[in-house]
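Open question from group meeting: does this chain pack into something compact, or does most of it stay loose? Before anyone orders reagents, we agreed to write out a predicted structure and look at it together. Recording both the input and the output here so the notebook holds the full record.
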Amino acid sequence: GGIGAEAVFKSPADGYTYLFASSAQTVALPHTVKVLPYDANGFTPVMAAIEPLIVIVIRPSLPAKTMREFIDYVKRNPGKVSFGSSGVGSTFHMFGVTLNNTAGIELLHVPYKGTNLAVNDIMGGVLDMSFGSLAGIGPLMQAGKVRPIAILGENRSRVFPDLPAVTDVVPGVELTPGWFSFWGPPGLPQPIVQRFHGELLKAMNTPDMNAWYDANGFLYIGSTPEQLKAMQQKGFESFGRMFKALGMKPE
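Structure tokens returned:
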């Protein structure tokens, strides 16, 4: 992601090259990478487009059926229950730490080189808890190979109305940003921004796209450029607080 962000950052501001990126490139990497080859605040905001539906899952052999039961189980077994993330300093790592602090529990962090590897270990009974997008983890949930216990967000999902939002179970837990957005190179003229933004809105609000969001577990955002910039700033500050609380340093 950082390689793509650098390429767009150095591209001409002519409206022919854009960055479609997760919040990692514009929110997280500035904290975790010591020498970033681009200025995350220098991109021209266009639109926060979509946000993936992330599900918290546990291994089915655990004696817990719900998020509340899982937290109670962790309290009875401090430091013995593991959670997997996509790496040290990743958004899932940050959330696990804030969950520990807010819920008063002690989950053991196990970093992976991707959440797919963590989910594989959930199925193998090696790891206790991890995260997954609906697109990747939905079939495993239906097959009973992983057990969903909560939505990693502030609202329940239309796709899984019986699953609580994690904030319903752990009030006050801080969520790391996870949206996908469009950005232009620095200095992209506003008439081009507005034209591209308008065309994106048309393309993203068709019946086919609305069906795709539900089928693949994405929440439609469709923000204005100004809203995206505000989301970036809020996410940057939030991630910075978590990163500092961990006592971590950029590498």
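Observations to bring back to the group:
The mean pLDDT is 92.
The beta strands are 19-22, 44-52, 54-58, 81-85, 107-111, 129-133, 147-151, 180-184, 218-220.
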